[in-house]
Amino acid sequence: xxxxxxxxxxLAAALTLVPLSxxxxxxxxxxxxxxxxxxxxxxLSEDHSTPIVHAELWYHVGxxxxxxxxxxxxxxxxxxxxxxxxxxxPEEHASMIxxxxxxxxAYTNDDTTVFWETVPSQYLPLMLWxxxxxxxxxxxxxxxxxxxxxxxxxxRRLRVDNQPFGRLSEILYDTFYTVGPYKHTTIGSMKDLxxxxxxxxxxxxxxxxxxxxxxxxxxxDFDSAQAMELVKKYFGRIPKASGAIPRDYKQEPPxxxxxRVTTTENWPLPAVVVAYPITYDGxxxxxxxxxxxxxxxxxxxxxxxKSLVYDTGIAVSAFGGGNIIExxxxxxxxxxxQRGHSPADAxxxxxxEFDKLRAxxxxxxxxxRAKNQFFRDYIVDRxxxxxxASQLAHAVxxxxxxxxxxxxxxxxxxxxxxxxQRVSKTYxxxxxxxxxxxxxxAGAVR
Amino acid sequence: xxxRTIRLASSVAFVAAMTAMGSAxxxxxxxxxxxxxxxxxxxxxxxxxIRSLANGMQVIVVMHHEQPEVSVRLLVRAxxxxxxxxxxxxxxxxxxxxxxxxxxxxxGDIADAIDSIGGALDTGAGSDFTQASALVxxxxxxxxxELLADVVRRPVFSPEEIDRQRQQALSSLQVSLxxxxxxxxxxxxxxxxxxxxxxxxxxxxxxxxxxxxxADLQEFHRxxxxxxxxxxxxxxDVEVAEAMAAAQKAFGDWQKQTVxxxxxxxxxQPTRRIILIDKPDSVQTAVRxxxxxxxxxxxxxxxxxxxxxxxxxxxxxRLYRVLRSERSLTYSASADMNTxxxxxxxxxxxxxxxxxxxxxxxxxxxxxTRLQRERTGDAELAGAQAYMTGSFPLTIETPGAIARxxxxxxxxxxxxxxxxxxxxxxxxxxxxxxxxxARTYLQPDRLSIVMVGNAAAFKDQLQRAGxxxxxxxxxxxxDLTAVDLKRR
Lengths: 446, 488
Description:
The structure holds 2 protein chains of 2 kinds. Chain A is built from 16 helices and 11 strands. By secondary structure, chain A is α+β, with helices and mostly antiparallel strands. In chain A, a hairpin with a 7-residue loop joins strand 9 (315-322) and strand 10 (330-337). Chain B is α+β, with helices and mostly antiparallel strands. Chain B has helices spanning 2-25, 90-98, 107-116, 141-153, 159-176, 180-193, 206-211, 214-224, 240-251, 301-312, 318-325, 357-373, 378-390, 399-411, 417-428, 431-441, 455-465; strands at residues 49-52, 58-63, 69-76, 120-125, 130-137, 230-236, 273-278, 284-292, 330-339, 344-353, 448-453, 471-474. Chain B has a 6-stranded mixed beta sheet with strand order 1-2-6-3-5-4, sandwiched between helices. In chain B, strand 9 and strand 10 form a beta hairpin. Classes of the chains: A alpha+beta, B alpha+beta. At the A-B interface, helix 1, helix 3, helix 4, helix 5 and helix 11 of A face helix 1, helix 3, helix 5, strand 9 and strand 10 of B.
């Protein structure tokens, strides 16, 4: 019995020592980068561990680029890219990829629209040829457009309108922003989807779906010289576009006093949100904000989990983190309030966590833990060709510097507790804060 | 047939028109066929080792040195299917409590230990198995293994942690019971499996979770958690000898014991039952349609897998084509074959706007019938097989994916040869095999049908669509434990 206790103590000591002295870092990636004369950026990274290859084509356009009255259009347009091009019939893109055992899909977010395929490596030419074909010659037809719009409306019903808490971010962003580019979320409104026309599709394609606004990342089992030849062959024949892409985003004016908003939804539990405006992805402050997210919400030893879920049971679920993207966005925390507790308690507990980050330096151990969690995320992500490609493309498109894919590890390594406290003091201020209570409609709780 | 011909004709005209427009967009863009593939590289299932400790615990090792991480996963042959009657949720609650306190560590100690090394520790129970896994960086391999062994072997199920997890489970369920996807899935399971444990959500229901005691949890752990009833998979940046030594150190002194699974009744034979769960605030109807299928270990598994893929899987998917591509009635539509140790099911699912509900249910049921009555075309079957065989290298990319396949074979007591012969077996299936299994196993006139949505907006369509005999249950009266599914 005594022996056992002593053993446990020793082990506990070992546990705290291991990570501080010897954190494993993600190995650096090997890649090459080039820009074609037409402006297409190409990143190639060989990985011969499995005979597959993954390509993703990032167009630097997302829902923040939509013009007023056309929310949801970037995503609706993404769907149109599967409706055929000169040499590929409608729906054939996906079916051809499936017929060779590949996977393909696309997604749209606030900043980018990404099309991807993973295929057995011998089909690299097919994949590049198909992506080039739809960049150059999308088929645009009114009947197809109208029917695909109905599919997107079903997607909105499925993911947003018919889900408990499905509208949470839509409500938060619409409430927080007055003019900023992130006032609406990517799915957009039914009204704006209905207002979109075939002319919008044509304009969007000719302005944004051009080589100079695209980055192609290819990772997998190929020979780089051969892959580059193929890229030139299929994408090189697309001419350089002449139009300049507008990037003049309205900035939200700084807050002057705390805003408080209460609203109701058909949800089973109340939700409380506390939100602060923060900076953009790549800003020197953004790294310490990433660390703050980890300290607040990664794992069961994180602060918000411990305080709101484990210790007090105020929340069924609670988290907080920075939405650190291309233009300044929000850092926010959400609590879904447990029966028997009040939204006021949840609000108090969430704000206390932000105030604590301002008032006290985080523990060295907490900082190191957050860094280790970051390194883990990098490493786990890089197990797949898809993860690697998306890290490389993100570095190019959002940071305009492919080297950041690896160099950010160094920035995280060098962060200090004082950095975390400094950014907390800068951003988590009362005058910048929005407190949002979303309560169940009367009769919604069964 | 006529409608089909017309659609085809108009789409040909449309293609011609669009090609002209494509040229206008980029005048010199060539008309050309897709490029030919490059020479392919041979690919085979990656090496793995299966060994055993003296106490009967099987250990699978997959070496993969690309990234400096190791994942350790333990599966116990006991899931919600062994929940005591009336106490559904025991396996799930027991699993949730594994990392909430052991003989020597509190819940907080465990969280600190795993988070501080940048690891992740997960526990959970499914229908057949309970699993616990630790993901750690290479330099923390021993720590991860020791921690995993501790939570699996020595959980204490302390009363206050039980209360906490029970409360969490009840609150989560309260949210889930407002989610149309969860509700529709749970009701369909009940219709397909009756009162067999597979008929209930793994989480249990509020009524059954409330009845679970500490003794139930301890007993579940005592009865089933044994080395000879478990399989450990060590995967990643580690050598076999190193993995075996760590497994021996962490699990070698775990005592072997006799494990006796409970005797369970068979699920009922399929009968047509149509349930409409009324959730008036819905803007879309969740439609789930299915019937009893087969257990995982079934000689016809490969034939059935392809039949269901033709109905609604990757590489083919008639449901997607009919519901989305041709009619824009949904965002997604699919069919799945779920196979477990003791039984399985075939399920089709989609979500559609309220106004289209009747039409969608009719179309799905018709596709089940068509699969049974019409011979599958060679080209369509070839498409499904091309996907299955072509995607093989994609399924062995990550160490986790490799381990999952080996674990699957071991846990369901299949032949290890299946991993090696997958592509040959997939290509051997013929249209006659599909016809035979569709006739043998599918019962389109006995499909169970569940719709969750705003009943007032679509119930009048059901008669016209041929589904007039339904049971209407307001969501607040739904009781999964009642024979008629209604709360008294």
